[in-house]
Amino acid sequence: MLTLPQLIIAFVLYFVLFFGIGFILNMLLRSTWTMAVIYPIVIFFIVDQSGFFSYFTSPGESFVVFWNQFISLKTADIIILAAGMIGAILSGIANRMLRNRGYQMF
After folding, report:
1. Does the residue 104 lie in any domain?
2. DSSP letter (8 states) at residue 30
3. Number of folded domains in the chain?
């Protein structure tokens, strides 16, 4: 059970972490929405407790287990993961704004 200060700190950390990673990836790859597209895959690996290769050896069972874990996320987990997605989207917006204002690096 997360307390309110822990939730606020986790929210800020995920936002800043994925904003920073997204900003750097978008800058290096010269693409605007790289992290916003990759983030659902990151969520998949965060939520998933099965091994990666179990999706190849027993895909039916593995996807059912993943889906059950995904829908059983608590509200605090959803808020924290949403903060990461917001950070990834805002990094794309920031890069697009910098490019439109003439900064060649972005």
Report:
1. no
2. T
3. 1
